[in-house]
Design brief:
By secondary structure, the protein is α+β, with helices and mostly antiparallel strands. The chain is built from five helices and three strands; from the N terminus they run ααβααββα. Helix content is 61%, strand content 12%.
Amino acid sequence: MSNNKDKLAEHLPLSPHVFEILLSLSSEPHHGYGIISDTRERTDGAVIIGTSTLYASIRRLLELGLVRDQGDLPSPGSDGPPRRYYAITDAGRELALLEADRVQRAAHAAKNLLRAAAKARD
C-alpha cells in the first residue's frame, strides 16, 4: 500500500453519513440539499442525513482535503439563488474506494457467517 493510501486508511472505517456523502459526490458535484436528496433516493430512505450532520461532515471533509468547495453556482433548472456546490477530490475518491472495499469484505464475511449458521441449524 502506498504512503498516501496508508494515510487515507487511517480514516477507516468511515461513518455511514460520511461514506454516503462521498458516494453522492463521486458521480457529480452537488449542493447540500442535493447530497441529502441523492442519499435518500439512492438508499431508498434507509439513510437520511440531517443538515447539521451534513454540514459538520462537509466541514471536516474540506479540512481533510477530501472534498472541495466549488463556490456558489446557479442550480440547473432553477430560478432560485445560487447554491454552494461541493466536489470530491482525488483523495476523497480514493478513500471512498478503500471504504467500499472494506465494506465488501465485511459483507462477504457476514455471508459466510450466515451460511455457517444455517448449516449448523440443519
